[in-house]
Amino acid sequence: MSAIITLSLLAILVLYLGLFKAKQVLLPVSILGLAAAAVLQILIWDTNATPLYSGMVLFDPFAIAFSILCIVITALIFLLSKNYFDNRSPHASEYYALFLFSLTGALLVVSFHNLAMLFIGVEIMSVALYILAGIRKRDFASNEAALKYFLMGAFSTGFLLFGIALLYGASGSFDLAALRDYVISNPQGISPLLYAGVLMILVGLTFKVGAAPFHFWTPDVYDGAPILVTSFMSTVVKTAAFGGFLRLFYTCFAPLQDFWVPAILVITVITLFVGNITALVQQSFKRMLAYSSISHAGYLLFAIVAIGRGSAGSVLVYAGAYSLASVIAFAVLILVKRATGSDHFEAFNGLSRKNPYLALALTVSMLSLAGIPLTAGFVGKFMMFSGVLAEYQVLLVLLAVINAAIGIFYYFRVIVAMYFKPLERDEIAVSVYYRAVLWVAAAATVILGIYPTGLAALI
């Protein structure tokens, strides 16, 4: 809990620093605060953790591992923010504070042990993002993104809250342990309210992770929001949402797999095809990343379909691989768009000639997202496919492999543009912060692709 308190106080401190015009210390203070929160999480590592604060939260290795991943990705995104926020608003502190509040909500989502805390965490995480998506007040696309995100988010929250109410009506408790005991002790006498509640929560959570057919807000919101906000939404928020999703279904609903697995199977297949086929026809690199994030939600749903002891490690590795690769992709997109004014694939033409290291980092990112061997993305997909193959027929894995092949095509479009489409262009200036993020993320992607077992073994 100390990490959550630290992040909350850090967000307030950042707001006060902005009030006193201390712009130069916003970034270092934020990074130090994030480092302190990560250290505090590591210090409470305990494989025999017990629920705290009347059973509201549980900081077990699962929660701590996902929390640290969210904190690390947020720190990388903050390093990319050097001079990014200053060019868009005289009040840069509000950006940092809103990110930190959203991160606080994300940590609550992955560590909840009470359904009321799940709801609170989702709302804290989402409300800050509603503001961030529309923070460019004079930009029509940003305003549209904020409105769509708010309306769809409120709609999905209604489903989530209604589902929680139905679960309480059936079991008489919001506590996960009590809910699990009710399901186990009543194998033949479970109330219909609980089944309805499971379906409602399933709809609400698939909205949050951007899975089809509840994905229609994702492309416009990701495209209209500022690039750094989009990178946070597609990495930290997705990771936290899947962490909460997995915790709830593994802890409470695993005995009811025959009821809810068919629904998730259908959602998974639709998500894979919708995400990949729509990404295939995009001309904008940013919009392609938005649609591809939908397909990655489909791959992550494999861990829910084949839920078991290995699901947590699979989700952690896949989410880590996807987040690192996405941070690289969005970082390069910021630099290219700043230099050319465009986010289309053509803007990357000839990038390898003037910025070979930039092109190499983006190549590692695209290879990982495509699932090419010796990258973290390949290991993540392999772990997902292995889990499903052990539980279900080969047909589902075959459909996933077909979708992975489609993904290779559109991810390689940017690689082809960088290396095989010459264009006379100026060299793009890359700051030391961007270089650090790109090389750290690229190195971690390769190392995780070669030695993946360490991260999965954490939980």
- What is the radius of gyration? 21 Å
The description of the largest β-sheet is: none
Helical run tally: 19
Low-confidence segments, given as residue ranges, are none
What structural class results from the helix and strand content?
Answer: mainly alpha
Fraction of residues in H or I helices: over 70%
What count of domains describes the coordinates? Answer: 1
Shape: globular
| Share of β-strand residues | under 5%
* Element-level helix/strand string: HHHHHHHHHHHHHHHHHHH
Distance between the termini: 19 Å
Tally the beta strands.
0
Global mean pLDDT: 87
Question: In summary, what is this structure?
Answer:
The chain has 459 residues and is mostly helical. It contains 19 helices and no strands.
General description of the model:
There is one protein chain. The protein has one domain (2-457). It has 19 helices and no strands. The protein has helices at 2-19, 26-43, 61-80, 92-111, 115-133, 140-171, 176-185, 192-209, 218-224, 227-252, 257-280, 285-305, 311-340, 351-354, 356-370, 376-391, 394-420, 432-450, 453-457. Helix 6 packs across helix 9 and helix 10 (227-252) packs antiparallel against helix 13. The two termini are 19 Å apart. The model has no long low-confidence stretch (mean pLDDT 87).
